[in-house]
Amino acid sequence: MEQTKTVTIGNKGKGVRSDCQISLELLNSGGITIELVSKVNALYGKSIRKGVEEILEFFEIKNAKVVIDDSGALPFVVAARLEAAVKKLIKTDKEFLFPFLGQNNYQTEKDKNRISRLYLPGNTPSLMINAGIHHPDGIILDLEDAVAPDKKFEAGFLVRNALRNLDFYGAERMVRINQVPQGLKDLDFIVPHNVNLLLIPKCESAEQIHLVNKRIDEIKATCKITGNIWLMPIIESALGVIKAYEVATAAENVVALAIGLEDYTADLGVRRTAEATESFFARSMVVNACKAAGIQAIDSVFSDVADMDGLKQNVLRSKALGFDGMGCIHPRQIKVLHDNFAPDDVEIAKAKKIVNAFMEAKEKGLGVVSLGTKMIDAPVVKRAQKTINLAISTGKISKNWREEDNEKI
Amino acid sequence: MEQTKTVTIGNKGKGVRSDCQISLELLNSGGITIELVSKVNALYGKSIRKGVEEILEFFEIKNAKVVIDDSGALPFVVAARLEAAVKKLIKTDKEFLFPFLGQNNYQTEKDKNRISRLYLPGNTPSLMINAGIHHPDGIILDLEDAVAPDKKFEAGFLVRNALRNLDFYGAERMVRINQVPQGLKDLDFIVPHNVNLLLIPKCESAEQIHLVNKRIDEIKATCKITGNIWLMPIIESALGVIKAYEVATAAENVVALAIGLEDYTADLGVRRTAEATESFFARSMVVNACKAAGIQAIDSVFSDVADMDGLKQNVLRSKALGFDGMGCIHPRQIKVLHDNFAPDDVEIAKAKKIVNAFMEAKEKGLGVVSLGTKMIDAPVVKRAQKTINLAISTGKISKNWREEDNEKI
Amino acid sequence: MEQTKTVTIGNKGKGVRSDCQISLELLNSGGITIELVSKVNALYGKSIRKGVEEILEFFEIKNAKVVIDDSGALPFVVAARLEAAVKKLIKTDKEFLFPFLGQNNYQTEKDKNRISRLYLPGNTPSLMINAGIHHPDGIILDLEDAVAPDKKFEAGFLVRNALRNLDFYGAERMVRINQVPQGLKDLDFIVPHNVNLLLIPKCESAEQIHLVNKRIDEIKATCKITGNIWLMPIIESALGVIKAYEVATAAENVVALAIGLEDYTADLGVRRTAEATESFFARSMVVNACKAAGIQAIDSVFSDVADMDGLKQNVLRSKALGFDGMGCIHPRQIKVLHDNFAPDDVEIAKAKKIVNAFMEAKEKGLGVVSLGTKMIDAPVVKRAQKTINLAISTGKISKNWREEDNEKI
To answer: Residue C313: which region, alpha, beta or left (left: phi > 0; alpha: psi -120 to 50)?
Structure first.
């Protein structure tokens, strides 16, 4: 704990929305003084003041001066800012938590669709609000590269509160922690609050995965949590590429590897190009490692948010190499990903044939499935079923395609 | 053994040739009744009936009704069908074998040419007859994907009899067994009958090779067989690609790895394209593993049997990457493979220079061979000699090229 | 030692310059006779004779006939030739060494620039003289492929003397030894004479590196040498490619891997093409192994010394894949390498930003460096600094770029 008695947390100024900046000064006497600057003062001023008083009381702070520059922060944001400020000044294990939002209380399947996952900077509330309405497969609250070093401390509280009180609209709830081992201490803010998946950046060994899982298990035991927490290590170095298969098979809860080409090309000392020859080997290694491990392969984000056609071409190339999804840095990228990672007509027709053969064999009580002379083994059926599910979830075919196809005949 | 007393084995109907379908019903009395439908009844009817009686007697069956629908089956085919029928109904360790065909009794060299090897479905006699006259380097009797699941049982007997009584015209005698461990039981039908090489499909570990070799050794010991049985594992999954070098170096009798791109691209979940970018990494891994292990690298079959130019381009690309041969699914593909995998003029000229330098050094009694300032070490000479041998066997140069070249000077 | 009493060492004839051929016949009586044929007889004849007498006396040879065919050999060349002749005929541990040239007495840094390194055949004095004036980053005296097998013995003495008495003009002093284990005996000629870096050809295992280092350590201990001797293993086989990471991390003094595509493509049995598709996988494996190990990646030489534009394209492709340098077989290639491996404007601008951010953070006493929201960690700063250093050393920017850039603002 720092010895200073005054601290400032959060953001204010031009372009800042849905956030607030809070300065907290601990005093020896004089009770609580709150100075509030807010455009919504008339409407919410009273409620904000009440919230601040409540939190200070919770942390047993009796004398303090609080200056709040508010740009429309929701209560969970104000609370996160104030708690961060308090914890910069006093040592306490208490956490101020609003009740967990009911609709956030879900688990995800190991092999659910992960075509799109939207990165949100972990310390920027304005981008979080309503992110879920774009329906990405996953939403990532990022504690790593999208948070400036001097903002890492406060971001932990904001991400924790967002996990509890931001509506994710059913998207898989993801957090990117900082690089292991430093990132291990992020887990205290994340694990107890029903996170579905953790992204592990700059991953280069199974050992890093084991360290994460060890800490997760400790926290789960302490908090009596039983749900699955999936891991998506990010391969973004030459060493990571060499260790891709080791990482992919490091633990049962590793559900995908992502590749991070910005850092990978920097590690190689090369320029990242559109043709991506410089990363062809790395992408092949990661895809192959993932498929060998039976998990998903996720491609790097596409940085130029204005170039929709470039994104589409990128998606088609990704899919052609075997990737199952990609990161997004802007909501407008989500639809392009879903449209183009979705199975195309040829793939759907092939998958239908296999699933039909399987269903018919099942209906006839046959032990084996065959298409022509070729026996169809269980993994092939599973893969075809996955294609069908993907086609349904991306709106390419109806849920009742079998019945509808039969009617057409 | 099934409890039913009637069973039907083999094929009949439109398009079926050189085969027969046999229904066998075991009876408690009444002796042997044979009903024969055959276009060649007039010519061979008597002989077929005699054959059937002989086989039933061999298996000590005294009362039975046999219905044969014949479309020109050779005796070894009829015998295979009938034995399969018998063994569906009664338990016996006896095998009905015709004498082994003398001209099939040869061994092959570890590093013999394997440019072309023709796949033949293991349960389709019509494709087997005369396959050898196209002179592929190898003929594969396929027990795996080319045999429907419910035909696997009978195919074993047919392949066994074909190994003994079908003329292979000097082609390397190969069988593709089913995936290990299930495929291990195929070995009983194969190993005792002078097979030269076994293809091991969907290979993903050295352990699978060890299991095959263990069972081969057991059968060889029982049958007192001493000849070499070479192995050609097929890499056709992402995991197989990762383990390619492990598999290539698993045992001394592994002489080549083949790659199977139909299954590999399915495992990756990608479409197989003509440019084959999606499998470039896998093909590179397999070629590199093979050359590092000092064995041959064999490319995937080309499926479009009508597209001869596409095949040629495919062969040239295969060769340029380091493959030594390829599978065929139609005899007409054989010549294209031999013409284009054969060394070209530049390669032949270079190889001649090296072999000449070696021969001259030998004639002069020199311990080392050099070309210009560069010492030519033994592997380089061996490789050049291989190129020359390949050029001779594919008809590009004469066996007496050295003498002929000298005369020209 | 051979039993013959006459031996001939060195080169003479058309095209031979700066060399001599010496025939030495040991006699039982008659003292020393010297026959000298030299164009520079008038000027240097007396001095050559005196040198020969001195060396024979050093080796205690009292009766001998020496025939010298001189084409302008420097004293260290004559001495190397004569010592080799003597040691073909008598057994002695003595070495005839001129005083070590002062300006050759330098060490090199582990991560110094290695953009260009010029190969010089180890038995061709004419190419050695003045090679340094072209200022390659390194000069390689080659004992391996550039020396004919029957010249290997004498080349050791010439390379040893060149290391002591040839002016390297500050270039990194390199020797390519023969393949391990045979090449281990080359080390006696090299290690005691301040070599900076050894190239280990056809490297395929960490074990080979350990053998080299063991022998280096023995010689260093004997000769009381303390300077670093760096290793640059050359990957030039399929097995080497598989073991690239193992070799790259075999020892602390491995500073780079080079790839040798002439031998690699021969090992694969493929033709080496300009597009280099056949070696894309191998080059990717080597670059990735090097970057994962934190060492430099060095590309194969470009053989067509007349095709300057082809060389430039080759360099740009090399750099785009992550290579840091390349071998040269002609001095004229050096400038093309330096011009095109040098950082371009975009790379320099990016590196300047990072270095500036780092310097500013340092000046402000900040513990962490950030650019925008992204924390810049130490390796990124180090890489940017390396780019800047490279830009300075290749003349792209001034040593005082920071001051000059500030003045412009």
So the answer is: alpha
Torsion angles phi and psi, residue C226, rounded to 5: -120, -15
Q: Which residue has the tokens 């991306």?
A: A394
Query: For residue range C135-175, what is the model confidence (pLDDT) as tens digits?
Result: 999 999 999 988 988 899 999 999 999 999 999 999 999 99
Count interface pairs B-C at CB distance under 8 A. Answer: 66
CA-based torsion, C314, C318, C323, C324: positive or negative: positive
Q: Where in chain B is the domain with CATH 3.20.20.60?
A: 102-341
Chain C residue numbers touching A236 (CB-CB < 8 A): none
pTM score > 0.95 for this model? no
B242-275 burial code (b ≥16 CB/10 A, e <16): bbbbbbbbbeebbbbbbbbbebbbbbbbbeeeee
What pLDDT shows up at residue A367?
A: 63
Do A232 and A199 form a contact (C-beta atoms < 8 A)?
A: yes
Q: Residue A60 is encoded by which pair of tokens?
A: 């047993």
Best interface-test mutation with B: which of C237, C242, C264, C273 has the largest number of B CBs within 10 A? Answer: C242
DSSP, res C15: T
- CATH number 3.40.50.720 is the correct assignment for the domain at B5-89: no
Kind and range of the H or E run holding A120? strand A116-121
Nearest to C288 among A147, A238, A271 (CB): A238
Distance CA C108, CA B265 (A): 49
* Rounded Cα distance, C26 and C60, in Å: 12
Count of A–C CB contacts within 8 Å? 67
Q: In whole angstroms, give the CA distance from residue A116 to residue A333.
A: 9
ipTM of predicted complex: 0.91
Strand order in B20-26's β-sheet?
B6-10, B20-26, B64-70, B32-38
The values of phi and psi at residue C45, to 5°, are -50, -45
Q: Which residues pair with C113 in a beta bridge?
A: none
Local confidence band at B375 (pLDDT 50, 70, 90 cut-offs): low
Q: Which of C311, C207, C202 is nearest to C257 (CA)?
A: C202
Residues 6+ apart with CB under 8 A from A226: A220
Q: Which residue of A has its CA nearest to C379?
A: A267
Place of tokens 């850092």: A263
- Average of per-residue pLDDT values in chain A: 93
Residue with tokens 């891991």: A231
Mean pLDDT of C356-385: 78
Q: For residue range B225-278, list pLDDT tens digits in order.
A: 999 999 999 999 999 999 999 999 999 999 999 999 999 999 999 998 989 999
Q: Which two tokens stand for residue A67?
A: 């200056």
- CATH 3.30.230.10 maps onto chain A at 5-89
CATH class of B102-341: alpha beta
Round to whole Å and give the CA distance between A263 and B59: 72
Compare CB distances from C268 to B245, B291, B368 and report the shortest one's residue.
B291
Q: Parallel, antiparallel, or unpaired: how do β-strands B374-376 and B369-371 relate?
A: antiparallel
CB-based contact B242 A292, cutoff 8 Å: yes
Dig out the tokens for A240 from the structure.
């990571």
- Only one residue has tokens 């076994």, namely B198
CA quadruple B71, B76, B77, B78: dihedral, nearest 10: 70
- Beta-bridged to residue C141, according to DSSP, are C120, C175
Secondary structure class of B247 (helix, strand, coil): helix
Identify all chain C residues contacting A237, using CB atoms and an 8 Å cutoff. 291-292
